[in-house]
Amino acid sequence: MKIETLCLHSSDFKNEYGCLTTPIYQTSTFVHEGVEDTSKYSYSRLANPTRCHLESLVAKLENGYSAFAFSSGMAAITTAIKLIKPPAHIIASDDLYGGSIRLFSNDALSYGYEFDFIDTSNLELVKSKIRKDTKAIYIETPSNPLMHVSDIKEIANIAKANNLLFFVDNTFLTPYFQRPLDLGADVVVHSGTKFLGGHNDALAGFAIVKNSELNDRLAYLYKTVGACLSPFDSFLIERGIKTLPLRMDRVNSNAKVVANWLRENPIVNKVYYAGFEDSLGYSTMLKQSSGFGGMISFELKESRYVSQILQSVKVFQYAESLGGVESLITFPKKQTHADVPENILNAKGINDRFLRISVGIENVEDLIEDLRQAFKV
Ligand SMILES: *Cc1c(COP(=O)(O)O)cnc(C)c1O
To answer: Is the CB of 62 under 6 A from ligand 1?
Structure first.
């Protein structure tokens, strides 16, 4: 089955009344018929039918052995990195979601992890950072918010040769455009809050693993940590996934128009977008992804334009987050990346002239018109 059909018809799940959609099994526990009853369901932290249905769908979309649905993307990442046994040195992209940076550079240290943040698009640099105690590589591609592209297959080869666990955060492109497990990754993580759910109405996270050994270890962590997705939110995310291909196609075509418009605008200094043919990672994108997604960052020529734009957009909403049907505009320095030390942000160019856009599924002419009136000088 192709992915568009899979998003709707992946199920072999039988329910009592023949409901077309997955019922919301709003229960914490399950009654046993007898002492030898070994039903898969005993307590909803371990497994719940609504959630299991969603997990089996997401596992199929990412072509994984299994998927685990969490209460947020950060819950998924925090639990999944426990697959790495401390003490451990971990190589990570230097451009990551702000919450991942916060976790890796502060909290994870106390679990016995030491992170090296580097430009993982530079394969020689990745190789040169491997030490005796290195146990994992963790990347985002394209990265948040600078859209650096790392070669998943090449890094998977490096990971395999050195017996390292390889994690990819696939939030930006989703399995509709990019399937890291097929390219050699071991674990894929997602903020399901973003494109998978797609409607800015529920938080969720996923970790998808490639084999039964990782499945067994993560299943143990999952029930131990307990950051599981509720039945109702599982239902919402599954409903969102039904239109993932349609939404991603529209987001992809809208983003191309918006990125090109920004590039031509006289108050814009620089545009970061993985779909520009002259961007650094373009050839890698063509190799490993079938679309460029809806994320665009840009730097304005002067910081005074930031408040002007954020206050005058009407279709774009000034809000943190991304990946929903509504277009959003974000000020990373004050929002998503506010906890990253200022000197690091400045060195990367995430300054007070830097904004990020998540393109939605509106009519693209309305998006351009909205930007035109907000960018007027
Ligand atoms: C939002 C985001 C996360 C965190 O997910 P939450 O659902 O907000 O906890 C992780 N990675 C990326 C790339 C994200 O955009």
So the answer is: no
Q: Return d(Cα 376, Cα 98) in angstroms, integer.
A: 31
Share of the chain above pLDDT 90, in %: 88
Q: Which CATH superfamily is domain 245-374 in?
A: Aspartate Aminotransferase, domain 1 (3.90.1150.10)
Rounded to whole angstroms, the Cα distance separating 350 from 341 reads 11
CB of 98 closer than 6 angstroms to any ligand 1 atom: no
**CATH code of the domain occupying 3-241:** 3.40.640.10
Query: What residue owns the CA closest to ligand 1's atom 2?
Result: 191
Answer yes or no: is the C-beta of 170 below 6 A from any ligand 1 atom.
Answer: no
* pLDDT (tens digit per residue) in 279-305: 999 999 999 999 999 999 999 999 999
When pLDDT is averaged across residues 137-142 and rounded to a whole number, the result is 98
Ordered by start, the domain boundaries in the chain are: 3-241, 245-374
Pull the structure tokens for residue 35: 């002492």
Same fold, 3-241 and 245-374: no
pTM score of the predicted model = 0.97
- Tens digits of per-residue pLDDT, 147-204? 999 999 999 999 999 999 999 999 999 999 999 999 999 999 999 999 999 999 999 9
